[in-house]
Amino acid sequence: MNNSLVFELVTSNLTHQQLWDAVKAHKLSNSVNSDIWVVNGCPPHKLSNDDVELTNEWILPVELQQYDRGSLTLELADQIFAELRCRRIILGIVNDDGTVVYYFMYKGLHKPKKN
Amino acid sequence: MNEHTKIAISLVKGNSNSGTPLVFDIDDIKKLRNWGTAGILTGTLPSAAQQNGFLSVPLRLMVEEALWLVDSGMAFFFTGPETVTAAAETLTAREMEHALERQEKSFAEQRLFKKQQHAEKMASLGIPFDEEKASFTLLESSLFVETPSVSELVSATIDQNSARQEELWIKLYNGLRNTGDYFVYKALKQNHYFLSPGARFGGRFIAYPGDPLRYHSHMTVQPALDYNRDPLDLLQVVSGGRLGTGVKKLWVVAGVKMDDEKEAKEDVSFFSIEWAGFG
Amino acid sequence: MTSETVEKDEELSINSNVLDSDDEEDDLFKDWSSIAKLSKSQAVVPKRGDKDYEPDGTNAQELLLYRAKKAMFDSISDAARGTVVKNQIKAYYVPQCHRAFIPHPRGNFMHTMGKVDRNGTCWLTFNEFVYLAERGTITPYFKRSDRESHELDPLLSIQDLYLLFKTAQETDEFAVFAHLKRLGFIVISSQLTPKSESADIPHTDVKKGFRQGLSTLTKAIFTFFPVPTYHPLQYHLTRYTTSSQIYEALKNLVPYYAAPKTMHDLEKDKYVTKFEGDDHEFTFDVWKPRGTFKKKVPGPPDFQLLVFNKNSSDCTFPTYAEIKQRFRSVRSKYEGSLTQAHTASSPGSKEVGKAVKRLNPYIEQQRRLKRGYRSFILAVMDDGLISFVKLTESDFGSEDVWFKTSGKTSKERSGPAQPKRRNAKNSINKQIPQTPPTSKNLPAET
Amino acid sequence: MPKYVPNVKYYKYPLPIHPLDNLPELVLHNPISWVFWLYSYVSSTNLLPSKVHVKFSSGKHITVADPDEMLYLWRNGFFGTAQLSRSEPTWKERTLNRLGLLESSRALEHVTEQRRLQRLEFKRERANFEAVKRELRHQGVEESEITNQERKFLQSLREQETQDQETTTTDVQFREADAELFDDNNKIVDLEVLELMPVEAMFLTFALPVLDLPAHSLARSLVGNNPSYADINDLCTKYAAYHHYRSHGWCVRSGIKFGCDFLLYKRGPPFHHAEFGIMVLNSDDSMDYTWYASSARVVGGAKKSFILCYVELLIPREEALLLWQQGKFARLFASYKMGEVMYRRWVPGKNRD
Fold first, then answer.
1. What ipTM does the predicted assembly reach?
2. Prediction pTM value
3. Looking at domain A3-106, does it have CATH number 3.40.1350.10?
4. Nearest CB to D341: which of C388, C393, C413?
């Protein structure tokens, strides 16, 4: 996987559309054969009631190209979790229609929100 | 686990690749439920034969479920129309007599019960009960002939021979559209989930934290992915995550690790996905 | 700004709607506590009890679960299958032909099930046999090959019956059969439905019909040699004075499959299919519950249905070629968008010949798009749970939905999108009322 | 039905190429009017005065940066999506609004945001009550009493919510990151660009002469110089489908939010909700059933009809690839044939009479 072309797009989207604070991109070091960037930032409010407090979140920009297949395998997801050591990452899915959509991805089996 | 406490799973046409695993004994179904396997009741409930919401035996199991139950020594397979035909054709006159005796015994019990009931009713109305007068034909025609759920014909011929069991197991496993699903099932069972088929919700399984009679489901589990090779289908993540938000279920993807021969290893990695609530 | 309102609205609409549909579908595990009150006469399904998020370790919750399970198992145990001696109907399974017979047939089920032979014996298909045994309507026995008398033929259990299914596919088909039967539908194996062959063939000359089939084909081939356009100089040479002209130029490029839209075209298509041996059987023909049903002259079914096991390596979801073949083989009542055609094929309809009211072309077009043309049902088996999917032939290529713009007329600005008057679709429509109300598919009403 | 019909003048034309609808009137018995008409006809053109400028950014994302051109593409057929908005470019206005730099009323996004926060608060309260409920159960309180308390609690919540809605105010917030939004003259910088889907861009250059990027350059930029057929298949089938729907008058937009390929609108998003969700498939595709089921649920859940659009290639793949390489796009796209199947859930109980 290589997301070096789109991490800036996600950074800008988080800052200027979603109004996050302190949004910064980082390159992951130990991912093999790939050029993977993650974005760190703080949302304007708690994202879920199940969160104890407002915390910085990790966002993994991924590109959804309708004209070719993505390359985020679960093996790679595990490696990213291992390096970031966080309980969740947010997939920032960059579509080819100009939108970015965000999905929580938890490692392992997780419980849904109660309400 | 003791041999004869094992649950009998009837494998309909288990000689071809696919087979349908069914359980007919209500006590077995209770046992399964207490072990965390609900299954799906599929037979007509005779007391309410015009609806599909409440059904009766047989209980149909998912193929993964049947494989797992046998693998864990809790159940065994038996199969074959030949078995029934052979048993029926070779039934001896003596065995038939036994069957008729059993029928007669049931009738006798019913007669006794009905008479008692009648007597009690008469007594409560203050009418003296005269056994001779009780209408014999009316009584006889109201006796109940039961069609039993569990076979008496084939019980004697059940083959629990382990080589045969293994042969049936492998055939059933190979009939799965996605064999990785078996390992996903197994891993979820190890986490004590109740599982049911999930196509209606857009998944392979639906996972419940306890008995579905009492608890809402927590997850829609996707068909197994190859951990190292299959990319996550992001378009499906988008729709799956959206669906999950509406129904309060997480969208779960599972990667099954394969060895070099592309055989599944018993190692499954799960990820739970939901819409982040923005974007 | 306003467009955003709409789009946002649209997105928010997902959740609640999906939730609604789930309430109905999540009924997989219901509250059995009131099932005891159900009887054969009043099949009122009780409401689902409230469920909890997860086990919380309280005794109260344990008790609720215990009660729920008890109610369920009591209901199953109490409802024994069978019948009283007075009403007993014995049916005998014959392994050689995988069917069962009833020597002394009687009962309501005979209106829609079984086939009575010359000797007055009623023959049941295996599905019918198992279904009736499961309801307790008949008592199933095994017909032993070596003796005439039924005295020593053994009684079969439900388990025996299931073990006698020939294939896993057959058990799936039975499950679908029983599911629909319980709801009152009349279900007959498509292979066994009496077909009114002669009535099916159009009254046109046979060879002509075939030639016409071919000519539709060549017409279809023609569409992929488009009018030369998309040339870089095109816009220097041509002047378009309406948006419609631009659309007309654009729409010639991509060819499409057009659905047959008149009764005549449909019959022709069906005939060509049969002629070329391309006819594909469905699993079941299904009629809506009705008292007037006649087994020998059932008329066209209301639905045709194909059973598909989603988890088996033996089955795959049909490809487009397979779906198309199925559409051509459909013999069920036409549910498509042409009300006229529908009326013409309804048996016993008094409306035939009556002038059909013309609707606003915009509404008619909307209806064609939303309703589609020929269809069949896919019954999807998921380890005991059945979902039904309706696949319908659609045709967007025959419809033009652009709105007319003209700098001068202002009346169309605020109105709904106006379909083009002159398009092919509408001219077909005009033909419909003139299509003679054919007698095909009408069962001989005796 | 549309909730609110905006000034239709904005959206007078369905395509960015306009018809010549200002030709003078032709009066039959007045030959002078013929001459004038002819003159007007020859001297006018459907072509744009200058083509819309596009460029690639962040890899293969095709963008339009000029604010007027962005608006033009949006208003003439609803092409493209503004990257910092949802569809129509509104970011600048929203930002001015957020920073209290605009007189006009609160932007829509802002109101929605307030409502969202209220909903979160409501849910939080709900979660707290669950804990209370658990405690009551532990204490052995009757189930009926618990239900009773729950009802009272929900009632109080609802009252609170209505109150909140009345007292909400617009508060201006300014963030560190907002500093970079201003140029040296203290004017706000427009960061927004309009992104075109590859199929939209192809339509606007191959089918209509709108973009300043020729079709063959676009093709090359998207899949490289020496693609295999597999590399171009998705683009070609999706383009053919896009062209098919666009050319019959539909406004075709991305279906990503509903997990499908395209949404079909009559006229466009301001006028109607999309009625159809389109999934484009190769004619020989047979997917796992789960794929159809989940896609159909999302599209169906939003009350749209789910259409499987099967695309059949009528010529050998090598030939199609050759046409691509020769830039013979008209012949290439004309070699894909469309067939549609509507897919919907069927409930037997609702189809009995």
1. 0.87
2. 0.84
3. yes
4. C393
